[in-house]
Every structure is written in structure tokens, then in C-alpha cells.
Amino acid sequence: MDRSDYDALDAGAVAAALGDLADAFSLVLLAECDSTNSRLLAQLPPDDGRVHVLAADVQTSGRGRRGRVWQSWPGASLTFSALWRFAPGSPVPAGLSLVAGLAVARALEELGVDGVQLKWPNDVLVHGRKLAGILVELTPGRGRTPAAVVGIGVNLSLPPDAQVEYATGVTDLAECLGRAPGASQLLGLVLVQLHRLFEVYAAAGFSALRGAWQQRNAFADLPVSIIGEAEALSGTCAGVDEDGALLLHTPEGLRRVLSGEVSLRLA
Ligand code: BTN
Question: Buried (b) or exposed (e) across 70-104, using 16+ Cβ within 10 A?
Fold first, then answer.
């Protein structure tokens, strides 16, 4: 398929959506790459004060959380990664991936998407079905400024015969809005939100954004199970704490969950 056969990423359109923040970013837009996360991690760009972003129309080896595959078709999804560097000496904050989910949620709401929800730690759902996924990976290396690669995939318009298996089911923006927005516009809107929210986060921590996250919590007060931890856990979702850990009311009391996969427990 040729790039002119679908709405390919365009640097001018991304810059227009970034507005005043255009100079804060360095953008590389590719027709194809294996995985934007893998590529950024393998070739760390220079630390020149800008946020480096790598986006691709199509990924041939897109990766998801917990070893999953992020499938890709031309024009089907926005796929990009941004390298975020933190002040030298500061620890990479733990709530980062929740903040990334909130940034995506806000960009979608700006576009007029109704029913946006967050599924801990960072899936973005619309009326219960998955629209976007986030994979945050920390850059290795002693003595370097700590940094994180924040990889984001948003479904724009999945092929009718696409088989995407996910517990909540999936949706795309074509379904949510009646038409898919341009990938470039969406990229710009998400980057603006990431920039805003990471600044708040760096200055004031996750507690400053906790309320906004909880307002969109897909499983608030619902019975859930957690798998992928050392022991399986069941309880009622009680939101997140000041660090972004999931809180669960269980028969043994309130438990903090730091990792794992949450699913709704049906009666
Ligand atoms: C998940 O839902 O499990 C996370 C999906 C993350 C997919 C994005 S697409 C851009 C970036 N590059 C990758 O290989 N993965 C992330």
C-alpha cells in the first residue's frame, strides 16, 4: 500500500496541532518501523532539551504490555513513542504511566469522545472497550539522566476483519466519533497534553493528578480480580493512592497493588 492510500503522518499537520509547543519537540515520522519503543530505546537521541518523538504509520513488531503484540495496519492506528527525560538525579517517578493514560484521555475528550475511562494502570477505554494502550519502558544505564520511553497506540479505524483479542473488547475512533480524526492532529493533541501533565507531575507528583485519574476510573467500586501478581487477588476497586498504586478492599483489609492485570469480576 502506498502512503497516499491512507492518511499518513504529516510533520506540518502535527506542528499545527502542537501550536506554541512545536519547538519543545523533535519529531521523526516514519512510514514503517519495527516498534517505535524498541527503536527509541536502541538509539537514544541527544539530550538537547527537547522531547524526542518517533511515530510510524505502520509497525511490523509492535509490542504491548505483558508480552502482548500490538497489531498494525496502514491507517488503522496512531502509533508513537516519546522519550521523556527527568531532572538529573531524580528518580523516575512511579505514577508516570497513569499520567500518560490521563493525557490520552484528555486529548480524546478534547476531540469530543464521550465515555472515556481509564483502566489501571494505563489502558484507555471508551464505554468499557479498549481504545488505546500504553507501554512505558525505562532507559537503562548508570550515570545517565533517567528517562522513560512512553509508547502509545490509539485505534483510529481498525479493518473490519481485524481480530484483536482483549478481555474488554476493542473499539476505534471511527466508531466513537462517526469518523476517524487524522493521525497527525491526534498526535499533536496527545503530545500537548503529555507536556502539560508531565510538567504538573514533575512539579507536584501524582497526588496533583489523582482526582482527575479517579474521575475516569473504569472500575471504581466494582468487583475486580488481579492476575499476574505473586498471588491472585480479588476485591472491590477503591481507586488509586498518592503514588498511583491500585487500592483494593479485600476481606483481609485494604491492599495496595503495584503491578498486574485488572479484570472485572462478573457475579
Ligand atoms: C498495551 O495495550 O498492552 C500497550 C500497547 C502499546 C502500543 C504502543 S504502539 C507505539 C509503541 N510501540 C510499541 O511497540 N508499542 C507501543
Answer: bbbebbbbbbbbbbbbbeeeeeebebbbbbbbbbb
Active site amino acids:
65, 130, 265
* Max Cα–Cα distance, the chain, nearest Å: 58
Report pLDDT digits (tens) over 178-217: 999 999 999 999 999 999 999 998 888 899 999 999 999 9
Predicted confidence (pLDDT) at residue 142 exceeds the cutoff of 90: no
For atom 11 of ligand 1, the residue with the nearest CA is: 151
Task: Return d(Cα 102, Cα 118) in angstroms, integer.
Answer: 7
Task: Delineate the domains of the chain, giving CATH numbers in brackets.
Answer: 3-213 (3.30.930.10), 219-266 (2.30.30.100)
Which residue's CA lies nearest to atom 15 of ligand 1? 63
SS3 content of the chain, % helix, strand, coil (to 5): 30, 30, 40
CA of residue 248 relative to chain centroid, distance: 23
CA of 151 to the centre of ligand 1 (A): 5
What is the whole-number distance in angstroms between the Cα of residue 153 and the centre of ligand 1? Answer: 5
Confirm whether pTM is higher than 0.85.
Answer: yes
Instruction: Name every protein residue with a CB atom under 6 angstroms from any ligand 1 atom.
Output: 35-37, 59, 62-65, 68, 70, 79-81, 123, 133-135, 151-153
